[in-house]
Structures are given as C-alpha cells and as structure tokens.
Amino acid sequence: MRKTIALLLLAALLLSGCARQAVPAAEEKLIRVGFSQVGAESDWRVANTVSMIGALCEENGFELLFDNAKQRQENQFVAIRNFIQQGVDYLVLAPIAEAGWEDVLREVQAAGIPVILVDRQIAAEDRDLYVCWVGSDFQAEGEQVLRWLEETLESRGRASEPLRILHIRGTDGSSAQLGRTKALENAVRTHPNWSVAAVLPGEFTEAKSYELVRDYLREDRDIQVIYSENDNMSFGAMRALDEAGISYGPGGDVTILSFDAVREALQLCMDGKIDACAECNPLHGPRVAALIRQMEEGKTPGKLNYVLESVYDADDLTPAFLAAREY
Ligand code: GZL
Fold it and tell me: Taking the model in full, what pTM does it have?
C-alpha cells in the first residue's frame, strides 16, 4: 500500500511538473541527463526517484532520460550504454552494488561524459571514473542507532543482559548494506553479551523479509533485537512477528531498529511499534542538480558529499513533525 501511494505520487509528478528551482532563460539549451536508478524496491527508493525527477526537469533546465534497472546490475549496464549512444551531457548513477563498474564507466569516460554517483558508491580503484558522489554515511547511520540501543539498554538496567540480534541485511554488496552491517559487526565485537542469532538476506524488500523472518521464527523465537537495514524489511518482519504472536516495540519482547525513517516507519515508531529509526535522506534531486550546475559553471565539486542524518525514537516524534516530512 505504502509503495502504491509513493508510486502514485511519482506518476503525478511525471504528469504535472517539477520542483522549481532557478528558472533558466527560455533560450538556454536543456542539459541532457541520463539517470540509471536501482529500481523501485522500497519506499525510500521511490522517494529518491520522485526527488530526482522533480529536480532534473525541463522547468529547471534539464532533459532527463530515466531508467529503472529493477535491481539488476546488467540492466544498469544496458541503460548506461544507451545513454552514451543518446549523447547525454551527464550520467547520474545510483549503483546497485559497489563492484563491477570499471569497464562500463571507462566507456562513459571515453565518450567524455562526466559521471555523478548518487546514493550508493562504487569500489573502483580509479577515482577518476566519476567526478563526485552524494549520499549517506551508512556506517555512521548504523553506529548512531546502535549507540541509541546501548544507551536505552543502560537506562533500563539491561546493559549486561544477553542480547540475540536477528540481522535482516539489505542488498548484498551495496554501500548501504556494507556500511550498516559493518556497524553491527563492530558493535557485537565490543559487547560480549551481544550476538547475531542469524543474518537474513532481505534484499531491502518487504516481501523477502517477511518470508525469511516467518520461516526463521519457526525454528528460533529467542531473539531480543531485530536490526533491519531498511524500513520495508522491518514492515515484513513485523508481519511475521504478528503471525508468530511475538510482541515488539518499546513495550514488547523484541526491539526493532530500522533504517530510512520514511513517514510510515516514523508513524509506527510514534505508535510504539518500531523502537528507533535511523534516518537515510533520499532527497538527492536538488543536490544532484546543484552539482551539475557547479560543473556547468566550470567548477569542480567536492569528491564525496555526505548528507547529515539523525536517529528518531517516539520521544522525538509528533503528528506535526511527520506532516512536515517530504517522504
Ligand atoms: C540507502 C539506499 C537503500 C535504502 C533502501 O541510501 O541505498 O536502498 O536504505 C533502498 O530502502 O532500497
């Protein structure tokens, strides 16, 4: 349901217009941008697409060529080669995973097309394959929400209790998964009473997470924390917990830590279902448009451009706060 609403928003945006920025002179040539997007696997991803399409629109001086790779890297390779053939001025890439980009980005480089990475990063040795990147510090997101867990357990006198953590992992090899997982691995190493009960490859989708958690709970119900690397996987896990009759949230048996902090998750947090949400801001459209504008003016943007993010729990949330959120 949630993603349906977001997709309807996206359709409305495509039909209506864009998030207006500086209005370029009418005679100015449109800047042609090819954007290879990961997919539409989560509420976060749809909000990111809405933001990108809203900023890179004709009223703002752009002609956007958009491709949804449906979570398959080979589809991104095809889209990128098509963008080269279509003679785009810029390539914007949200890489599904960090590995495997050298060859296709060398073709882009040979065509003289500047590359901007958005959201996730690539693992290429050659940093000249892209001009700049804008996105989140995923390991810091994990460290923040685990610090919240540590402080909360301390405040409840539970700091030394054994803690079995069910880790629901995002798309393997993606920057978001690598960073958030590293934060958990480091935290478990420094807390002798914490352990990872199991790692479930949820691929950032609600459906996959629901299936995996449902099957897992049939074998083992002794978990105290779910560390879910995005909100949609948390929603799937909550459905499985409900079916298994296991309570969760601040007053429940299982503490749920979730990433993205989309509005639906913040509502569940305010309702006492999710314990803490680590924000991951998807609104990169205006940021990417500004980076392109800088390059159009002959300036070289900073290589890595991080966005600042928070962790929210019920104490931080009000209906007015949620209403003011863009996603
Ligand atoms: C994070 C992004 C992740 C989100 C998921 O920047 O790459 O991918 O956390 C999305 O919701 O699918």
Answer: 0.93
